[in-house]
Every structure is written in C-alpha cells, then in structure tokens.
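As described in the Methods, two query proteins were run sequentially through the folding procedure within a single session, without resetting any intermediate state between them. The first query and its resulting structure tokens are shown here.
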Amino acid sequence: MKREDLQNKGFATKAIHGGNKTDPTTGALATPIYQTSTFVFDSAEQGGNRFALEEEGFIYTRLGNPTNMQLEEKIAILEDGEAAMSTSSGIGAITSALWTALKAGDHVISADAIYGCTHAYLSHGITRYGVEVTFVDASNPENIKNAMKENTKVIYLETPANPTLKITDIAAISKIAHEKGDCMVIVDNTFATPYIQRPLEMGADVVVHSATKYLNGHGDVIAGLVVGSKKFIDEVRLFGVKDMTGASLGPFDAYLILRGMKTLDIRMEKHCKNAMAVAEFLEKHPAIDKVYYPGLKSFKQYELAREQMSLPGAIIAFELKGGIEEGKKLMNSLKMCKLAVSLGDAETLIQHPASMTHSPYEREERLKAGITDGLVRLSVGLESPEDIIEDLKEALDKLI
C-alpha cells in the first residue's frame, strides 16, 4: 500500500502493509529476495544518469536494493520519518548517522548510560578524528543545556537507556537543541520500538535502531536502521554508508526483518505484559535489593515514562543484595532463561553488563553512569510468564 493510503490506519496495518510492493512479474505476496550484488543498466546513458542522481533506479546493493527498500519504507512509515537507510548492524546505523552528521571540530553531547559499543565509538573512536564528546546524565535536561557549546552539532540519546532504563525527556531536549539552530537530536529507539515510542513525533531529528532486536524479534539477524528526513538519509546513503562505514545490509537479512516486523505489535504487547509480571515478582523477592523497570511505580521516572511511552518495555535491570558474586550464582543456576547478550528475542535472556556488554567503559565512567558491578539485565521473552518467574525463583531462592 502507498504511504498516503496508510496515513489513518492502525499500527498493525502499517507494520503489515507499509512499504510492500507486489512483484510485477509473478504477483508474489511475500517480498522477493533480490539476492544480487549489482544491477544491469539498459544503456550507458542510463548508468551515467543513475550515478549522477538524475534518474532513479538501482546501481549496486551497497547503495540500495529492492528488498531493502521495502524494509526502509516500512520503518520510515512506522517511525513517521520521511526516509530510512538499512545497515548491516545497529552499530553500523549509529556510526553511519554520526559520520554523516559530524566533522572535525564539532562537539557531541551524549547520554552517559548507553550501549557499551556506542560509548566506545564516541569515547575512543570518533574522537580520533577531531570530534569532541561530552557525556552527561541526560535524564536531567538541564545537564544537556549546561553542556551546550557553540560547536555542539549532535545530542545523542538512548531512552530507555541500556542497561539502566533511565528515561530521557525527548521533547525537552529537542527544544534545547533546536533553540541553538544547528544541532540535531539522534535517538536510539531500540528498547522501545516505534510501537511504544516515536521520537520524531516528539521533536527528535533522527532515529536509529538495532533491528537485530525487537524489530526482527527472532535472534537470527544482525542489522540496523537509520530514520530521518529525506535529505539526511540521502547523505547517510551516499556518504555515511557508501564512503565511511560500508555497512550495507544483505537482502536476505532485510527479508527476515520484514517478516518479523509484521508481528511487532503482538510481540511487544506480550513482551511487556510478561515483563510487568516478572518485575513485580522481582521487586518482592528478598534476594533483590533494587529493581529498575519503567512500569513499576517505584521507578524514579515512572511518570515521564508513562507520558512518553505507550508501554513500559520488556527490559528489566536489578541489583542483588549480595552483589556480583550472587549475580553470577543466579545466572549460573537458571535453567530456561538463557545467559546471553542481546535482547528482544522470543527467549528470555540474562547478562551482566559490567563484565559483558558495557565492559568497554572505564570503571569510573561506568559507575558514574549508574552501571554498577552488581547490576543484572534481563530481556523478558515470550515464554509463559509463570515459567519465567518459576525459573528465576528457583535460582533466587538459592541466594537466601
């Protein structure tokens, strides 16, 4: 269906029909996988025109592919963006967007609690090329305002944050950025997905995703997406990906994400319902010191989460009274929940951020961001909630 025909349709309808184009040769309902590296031109003139951007059409899969294009149109519709670019990983999406937005001499303000590899790129990667980076607690917009400089060009946010679940006021921070005039806000929306939160509608300029997670939902793809204005996405495609990262997505992976996105709303409802039940159980267990989950009334930013998100998500962080040693015992005692990094899969996954996903942080920076040695991250899956709770209870009871 065309985008204009979907304007007043529900999320599920957009997720199923958005971007879809019936194969003109066969009439196939499912999106064909155009497993090709290059595309044949009708003439030398046509090839030249496409390279000169004077004629639309495909050239080379690193620049675009019909399967990928349907995925890009679908996520752009769901995030209410003008256009999107697919990449070969979430970090590929993030770095492609930032390479496009920044140059030597520019300044970035980033939330301090973010994915470990993103933090490594900002603190040890892009700084090698003359970009200045300041990390702040972005849960307080005043910290962003106080960190602004004349050369600040990007404010980078994750909300909810990985792994602390801190919530950032997207509208307030976007207002601060845009009052400056030449500063864009980039939001990693992986934890929430467009089903729960749409940052562009709140004033953000660009959204990035690790499509590996909830968008695909089945743990069998590594992919990323960048969503924003057509002008910015054209620059990401022709500079950020083509010239800088080369992080192009293969068409088979694009197909798998397209298939997964058709059930995004159903899966997110179940993920969040399960997570709420698990969070309430954890909060009452005597071995647990603190639970961080936006759906709990005890969560510090509960009201902001309710304003900004339609559901509280399915990631829980918690601290054990016995610290990391007890955390190791817990993780090693689980039977059904899997000890693995990543998130958003059908399976419930548990991991230790300080030694795993957030190990790239310097310890002092990590602790300042609220990522303590004893913090455990739980990605609640789609199993029967009573079975998730039973597995956790058996392991937690051994710690009492």
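Immediately afterward, the second query was submitted; its sequence and tokens are:
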Amino acid sequence: MKLLVIGGAGYVGAIVLPFVAARHTLRVFDRQPPTADWEYLQGDVGDLDALVRAAAGCDALLYMAMGDKNYATNLGITSNFDVNVKGLYLALDAAQRVGIGHAVYASSMSVYQHNLEDRPHQAEDLPPDASDLYGLTKRLGEEVGRNAVRAWGMSINALRLFLPMAEPDWQAFARDHTPTFATSAEDVARAMLAALEYRDGFQAFTITGDYAQHHMHMEKARRLLGWEPLARPGMPGAAAV
C-alpha cells in the first residue's frame, strides 16, 4: 500500500517507520523532512487543502503527529489541541474526501489517568479518563476517530502506545523478569503493520512491551491483530519485523 504518514519526521517516526517502509510505500507529511529518503511533502495539519493534496493517491492514513511537549505553556496547550484533535479531524476528513477509508492513529496509554502501575490488569475496554493536557487531547482524538467511523464510514484503529524505544535503548531499559511497559520500535511497527490490515469500525488496542502481562492485558491485540510484544531482555532482534 501507499501510506500517507502524517507526523512521520518525529521521534516515533524515526525509530518505527523504517520497519513499516520495508512493507509499504511512504509519503511523509510534516513541517520538517524525515531523516530517511522517503517521499516528503511539507505542510501543517491545520491546512485542509494541503492535506487533501497529500492524501491523493494514497491507500491508507497513518497519523503520528505530536504537539509541543511543554504542556504548561501557551504553545504546548494550543499545539496539542491543534495536533491531537483538530489536526486529526482535518486529516481524516481529507482522507475520506479522496477515497481513503482506513486509518491508524498513534494514540497513547496516557488516555488513562494516573500511574498505570496502580491499575494492574485493568480491562481493555475501560473508558479513558485522563484529565491532563496530553492525555485529554489523545482521548479526544480517539473520539474524533469514532466520529469518522459514524460520519464517513471509515475504519480506524487507535494504537495506545507506551514509551516506544529503539531496540538498543529498550534492551538497556528492560531487565529480565522485571515488568516493563516500554515498547520496542520493532514491536510498535509490527502493531502498525497489523492495524493497517485489520478493518472493523473503530477499535482501540493496548500496545506495550509488558510481554508477561504483569500489568497490562493485551488479549484484544492478540485476538484481532495477531499481535503481541516479542522483544525480550537479552535477546536483541527478537521482535524483528
């Protein structure tokens, strides 16, 4: 497939997209160019006309854009709403205008309030409840996805990611027999590849590196996407795509 990747020049894109690019053709739409030599269109997620032009000729949408991380500042507040809510709405609208019917949204486990370690084995269908800026805007983004399904008949998979890391960083972070929520880049890419194929209304999936499921249930991803984290401490490349 030819994928329109919005926000592909950021941190997550840099570590994950090389694996996705091995299976699909990428067109990256971002304010800054990616480091890799993929097709690139410069633009802003607030520009509907630019998004429509970028979406033309693509088969699916992968939305990975991020706002400013200084959440207490005016820029942080406005950019997170602009990117995670308004920008996602415009991107999905642009996609459906040119006939794209499927999208994968890089959501976050931050849609849940408080420390996830305080919620062991929470149900995967537990309603998101975050009230902080980032978590709130990410869960509002999921509502935008649900609306696209109702309004335009699209299929949307929201992947609730937790701390994606390049493989060497993940290996340094993880310890054998110690629960870790962080997710290797290869495992994130595998989830994205599976989510690009699965199409059934709006679905949200827990995607973490907690391979022993000490804290996180990921049965839904296993059942519907055929996905589970494969990275293991001391076994570099175990999650290779």
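Residues 74-97 form the longest helix (24 residues). We note this only descriptively and draw no conclusion about the first query from it.
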